[in-house]
Write a structure and sequence with these properties.
- By secondary structure, this protein is of the alpha/beta class.
- The longest helix is centred in the last third of the chain and has 13 residues.
- It contains eight helices and ten strands.
Length: 206
């Protein structure tokens, strides 16, 4: 299975150290780790060495096949998209298998628009439905190329379950930018500690 060699090289170069250090600081054996936007599995692989359970969610069919090969025994990948309602959604990228597969077809932050032939349909699931049978405490990593907008509509879920969260924001792909920023600020206010790990990536925990 062909691997994205540039990404694994970036890991070795330390480009993601600020994000990955959040696991050293906050991930514990008691956690159920939920990897939303698992891509090819780097975060799931790291978390599986600590968390007692790992759930890896990735909708992109090319990335999903690589993810399934990379995951250790006991971690089952789920090929669905996270949204605010069940159903089927169209997703795309400039190149399937890259890390920018998303529901918004437009260009953003230097990333080009969808390319013809690089789209697919996939079943959706809400975060609430995904985690309903998972044990607390949860540690949820969210890197879903703009679909965090849909996830942040259910602030009640975060208030109820109080997961530790590693969240990457992509405001250039949000549809209602003002409201989503308000939802994000409301989410931060729920936690005793919130800090920016790097760029638009935040850690929230109690």
């Amino acid at each position: 299975m062909s691997q994205p060699e540039d990404y694994w090289g970036w890991i070795e170069e330390g480009r993601y150290n600020c994000e990955l250090s959040a696991y050293d600081a906050h991930l514990q054996a008691k956690h159920t780790f939920v990897d939303l936007g698992a891509w090819v599995g780097a975060h799931s692989l790291l978390a599986s060495a600590t968390a007692h359970k790992v759930v890896s969610v990735e909708p992109d069919p090319v990335a999903f096949d690589i993810l399934a090969v990379n995951l250790p025994k006991g971690v089952t990948p789920i090929r669905k998209a996270i949204s605010d309602a069940p159903g089927v959604v169209t997703m795309g990228s400039g190149l399937l298998g890259a890390s920018t597969t998303r529901t918004n077809p437009l260009a953003g932050s230097g990333i080009g628009p969808w390319v013809e032939g690089q789209t697919f349909e996939v079943e959706c699931i809400t975060l609430r439905e995904l985690v309903k049978d998972l044990s607390d405490p949860l540690f949820i990593k969210i890197d879903v190329e703009g679909s965090e907008e849909a996830i942040l509509k259910d602030l009640e879920l975060f208030a109820e379950r109080k997961p530790t969260v590693l969240l990457e924001l992509h405001p250039f792909w949000w549809k209602d930018v003002d409201q989503t920023w308000k939802n994000f600020e409301a989410l931060k206010a729920m936690y005793k500690t919130s800090y920016q790990a790097i760029r638009n990536t935040w850690v929230l925990h109690d």
